[in-house]
Amino acid sequence: MATPKQSLDQQQSQHMRVKNSGLISYNGSPMEDNDEEEMSKSALAAFRAKEEEIKRKKMEIRERVQAQLGRVEVETMRLAEIREELEALTDPMKKEVAIVRKKIDLVNKDLKPLGQSCQKKEKEYREVLEAFNEKNKEKAQLVSKLMELVNESERVRMKKLDELSKNIDSLG
Q1: CA atoms within 13 A on the CB side of 136
Q2: Do 13 and 41 form a contact (C-beta atoms < 8 A)?
Q3: Residue 90: pLDDT above 90?
Q4: Dihedral angle sign, alpha carbons of residues 133, 137, 142, 147
């Protein structure tokens, strides 16, 4: 198949032949009527062939466009059906879902103050626990001191008793 540039060159050369048909040929003698007629027929035939080729290509393109339009139309119809199905699609559990969501909202409302109360009580518990632990530590320290004092007291008394016992033994 000829490229558009080659086809254009052929058309221009044929056009020049037709144009020059009434002129003197290169050798200086007028062209014969037969040659002119043949050139005219040849140019006319080439022109008709080009016209037929253009018509054929135009028809091919028209057919391709129609085919594409047909496919687009079918796809448009399919998309419209899908859209209708999508719009018609309802959740069979919509009512139950709405009820459960409302219940969740109500529980969330109840949870908020309970959570705040829990946090407050946890804080109080930590504070009381800390105070308890401090008092318990203080008690342990006091018990330890008491034990030391009792032990010291016993030791001192035992010493005193031993001295008294030695004094009695020395008297007698």
Answers
A1: 6
A2: no
A3: no
A4: positive
When pLDDT is averaged across residues 20-25 and rounded to a whole number, the result is 46
pTM for the full predicted model = 0.36
Longest dimension (CA), the chain: 188
What single letter denotes the amino acid at residue 57? K
> How many CA atoms does the CB half-sphere of 19 hold within 13 Å?
6
DSSP type of residue 24: B
At 26, phi and psi to the nearest 5?
-65, -30
d(CA 28, CA 19): 17
Distance separating alpha carbons of residues 118 and 50, to the nearest angstrom: 94
Q: What is the pLDDT of residues 134-168, one digit of tens each?
A: 999 999 999 999 999 999 999 999 999 999 999 99
